[in-house]
Amino acid sequence: MENLIRFGEKLFDELEIAVYHSRDVSASVELNEISMASTRSGAVTIIRGIKDKRLGLAIVDSDEPERVKEAIEQAAKMAKLNSPDEKWVSLPEPGKYREKPKPNYELKETSPDILVEKLVHGIKLAREKDPNVVVAGGEGGVSWEERRILNSHGIDVFQEGGAAFFFLELVGRKGDVVTPGIFDFDARRDLNLDVDGVVERAVQKVGWAYNVEKSRNEEVPIILGPWAIAGLFSYALLPAFSGERLVKETTPLAGKVGEKIASDVLTIYDDPFHPLSLEPAIADGEGVPTRKNVLIEEGTFKGFVWDNYWAKVYGTESTGNGKRDLRSGGINIGFHSVVIENGKRNLEDLIAEIERGYLVDGLQGAHSSNPDNGNFAVTANPAFLIEDGEVKGASVFLIAGNVYELLKQASEVTKEQTVMPFMNTMITPHIKFENVKIAGK
Amino acid sequence: MENLIRFGEKLFDELEIAVYHSRDVSASVELNEISMASTRSGAVTIIRGIKDKRLGLAIVDSDEPERVKEAIEQAAKMAKLNSPDEKWVSLPEPGKYREKPKPNYELKETSPDILVEKLVHGIKLAREKDPNVVVAGGEGGVSWEERRILNSHGIDVFQEGGAAFFFLELVGRKGDVVTPGIFDFDARRDLNLDVDGVVERAVQKVGWAYNVEKSRNEEVPIILGPWAIAGLFSYALLPAFSGERLVKETTPLAGKVGEKIASDVLTIYDDPFHPLSLEPAIADGEGVPTRKNVLIEEGTFKGFVWDNYWAKVYGTESTGNGKRDLRSGGINIGFHSVVIENGKRNLEDLIAEIERGYLVDGLQGAHSSNPDNGNFAVTANPAFLIEDGEVKGASVFLIAGNVYELLKQASEVTKEQTVMPFMNTMITPHIKFENVKIAGK
Fold first, then answer.
1. Would you place residue A422 in the very low, low, confident or very high pLDDT band (cuts 50, 70, 90)?
2. Which of A301, A327, B4, B280 could form an S-S bond across to B101 if both were Cys, CB 3.0 to 4.6 Å?
């Protein structure tokens, strides 16, 4: 690869070669049966070269030197056809990395058999625990990735690692009631996926959902679960921390560093080195060292996150948040593992104190949120009515609001944290918010 | 592969091996510049085996005999763990195919250079024709696929072919007006993509959109363009023709064969052999011969489409509409090329006769339509106000209605047909509908 950098330097002022090898095994469930087992692997090389501030970017699904060479020539032709990007400064310089975590090589060789077994066990257990349950869907997967990022300024960083995930979707049918799809999941850096825990939690929620409670317009405490938080924050809140949005003036957080934007109970940071992280990356998608970036500390907004390009445009440093989009080949500002710090008490303790309120498992429609101002309008479903400290049944209702108002209403976070492997990877407790206006449906 | 069928027959009562080779080259535009060129290729083999009515399905991204053998064993293990599907009858028997179309081998070897050149030409031309235009996005792509479907009943069918597509998204900015993203596209089975036509049509629409006209609540004629039709029909109408939905009682067309469900001007059929078709398949995803299946003939509903499984459950024959989902490996009922028959007059003639009405280029929100009853609620955008036979400017409005009511309001179809390569492949004229209720926005 070093030779290819030398070859590319003849055509470009500077260039980057990023090589990704991946292997994914997975198995799926549909209606109580295993529907599919799959094994896929591949290599992708992405060339990013700059000549006279003109960018060329080529992608090829191979790491064979001949094909990479062709891609370099392809990128060089493209750069010639593009106009200069006057904002372009340079690719990153080498930095100092944290110590590499030890990869779990068991995940490199996993057979889909193991996932099929776990799913079969999950289906059997769910139907034993509740004969009225159908396992509508589910999936187990193990992914392994090896990546190497090199550039002509001397960056050369190799990383490898894997993660496993598992989820089930249950639907219960009792009398006239058909519950909504109830999800639960686990994700981790080894194969000890907690199938029994997933089933137990999902079956408990299905049990609650057999009793349907009408919702009404009211102002009540609500507890958002990890899936609901990840959905809402991924679309309404997290984009606002992007330095690109600061430059483009599309974040409501501009000029607010050091200001109180949330309740004291909320501390949020991005760090791939959290113990529950699925991908403890030492470098981001362009080889810049990762670090812990605090977004909100006890309610106070601490700062933006940056990739190399927008940091240099703004005159600051990359925070190691350049994430590679393997489809477009480009770098976008993104997160590694968004962590919401946990609290001291269990979810049960929080529920026990609520006279009337809701526990919200999922929020639908969060993707239509507006990150420019934090406005959102979502349907809480599945959601569960709490009365006199106990869950009474399932309800559906609407919440239309603003995520920054909501952040100030947070009153407690639970002790348990869950890792949410979908959308942005988030490691989050349940969060209780006070006096949330909801509209019955 | 025949040997592998023999190997699999020891483990299964019957089995199918489907091998897909693909090669995709593409290039993209972002904000007037070429952002990426990519070349990707791959092989996927899917095993579907049945033993005592128990299904096993395995996917492997290779066609090497050793790995396919492993996948067969994988599928056999899975079948043992599943329960019998009492509805299962059998995999398809060999059928009689139409003559294979001659593939255009030029598409097998295409370099992304050609697409980059076409995009650069498109960007240059668009900005020459209208200096206020930004080419916000766009893509050119060429895909090539070779597939072989074999099963233990003697099916062995090989097909190969390719298609090219091209689209641009323009945004115009004049004074205070920023137009919505205006799309136009071309798709065909050779490389003569009509870049000039795409630019000309898109620039014309941008020109219209510089003038913004308020919409109001009214009942007016509207003309839907190909993109709007493909969006609405893909979600609100086409699923209703699925035999699976007939069996599951989730189609409003049950019991209506021979009934008038649309205006006389509408004839709709599915046929991969239409001259504009992007994929003239002689066999579907499970090796059943394709044919022309008429859905609606001069307003009369002619019948459902079937794959092998649901046809046998219902006691009829597959219509060759088993489409393979390469992600899940399974077969779903789907379409090859949905053709809406064209008429005699040009779009200009139709527009010239409208005193007040709208030309609708795109419909947002069509994916939320309900195919169980045909209800939909969409935002028409981009859409253009027509007054006194001329397009006056851009408007945004809502249409909430029922697709079957709309079908009866169709009054004319244009002579020109466009092939829509996204969602379901559709070959469609513009369609005029009378007295459509719209809500101003």
1. confident
2. B280
Average pLDDT of the residues in A372-384: 97
- Cα distance between residue B422 and residue B366, in whole Å: 14
Same structural domain for residues A197 and A219? no
Domain harbouring B13, CATH code: 3.30.2290.10
Give residue B371's identity as a one-letter amino acid code.
P
Q: Total structural domains in chain A?
A: 2
Q: For position B120, what pLDDT does the model report?
A: 96
Nearest residue on chain B to A72, judged by CA atoms? B37
Residues B375 and B236 in one domain: yes
Q: Taking CB atoms and an 8 Å limit, are B113 and A75 in contact across chains?
A: no
**DSSP type of residue A239:** G
Burial profile A207-239: b = 16 or more Cβ within 10 angstroms, e = fewer: bbbbbebebeeeebbbbbbbbbbbbbbbbbbbb
What domain range is B347 assigned to? 211-440
Do residue B418 and residue B430 come from a single domain?
yes
User: What rounded mean pLDDT belongs to chain B?
Assistant: 96
Quickly state the pLDDT bin for A2 (edges 50, 70, 90).
confident
Q: Is the pLDDT of residue B346 over 90?
A: yes
- Give contacts of A82 with chain B, Cβ < 8 Å: 33-34
The reply to whether B223 and B88 lie within a common domain is: no
Last residue of a domain, one of B182, B207, B232: B207
A chain contacts of residue B61, beta-carbon cutoff 8 Å: 39-42
Record: contact B83-A28, CB cut-off 8 A: no
Report the alpha-carbon angle A367-A369-A374, nearest 5: 145
pLDDT for position B25:
97
Q: Which residues lie closer than 8 Å to A379 by C-beta, 6 or more apart?
A: A363, A364, A365, A396, A397, A398, A441
Q: Are residues B323 and B235 in the same domain?
A: yes
Quote the CA–CA distance of A421 and B206 in Å, as a whole number: 41
Q: Do B34 and A82 touch (CB under 8 A)?
A: yes
B292: closest CA of chain A, how far (Å): 31
What span, in angstroms and rounded, lies between the C-alpha atoms of A305 and A242?
5
Largest CA distance in chain A: 73
Q: Are residues A195 and A237 in the same domain?
A: no
With contacts defined as CB-CB under 8 Å, which chain A residues touch B78? 27, 34, 37, 116
CB contact under 8 A, A112 and B58: yes
**Are B77 and A116 an interchain contact pair (Cβ–Cβ within 8 Å)?**
yes
Residue range A5-28, pLDDT digits in tens:
999 999 999 999 999 999 999 999
Angle at B26 between CA B23 and CA B28, to 5 degrees: 160
| Residue among B147, B133, B186, B149 nearest B164 (CA) | B186
Q: Are residues B195 and B244 in the same domain?
A: no
Q: Which residues pair with B340 in a beta bridge?
A: B268
Compute CA A5 distance to the chain's CA centroid, rounded to the nearest angstrom. 32
Cα–Cα distance measured from residue A62 to residue A41, given in angstroms and rounded to the nearest whole number = 11
Both A261 and A404 in one domain: the answer is yes
Closest alpha carbon to B283 in B158, B395, B409: B158
Which residues of chain B have a CB within 8 Å of the CB of A78?
27, 34, 37, 116
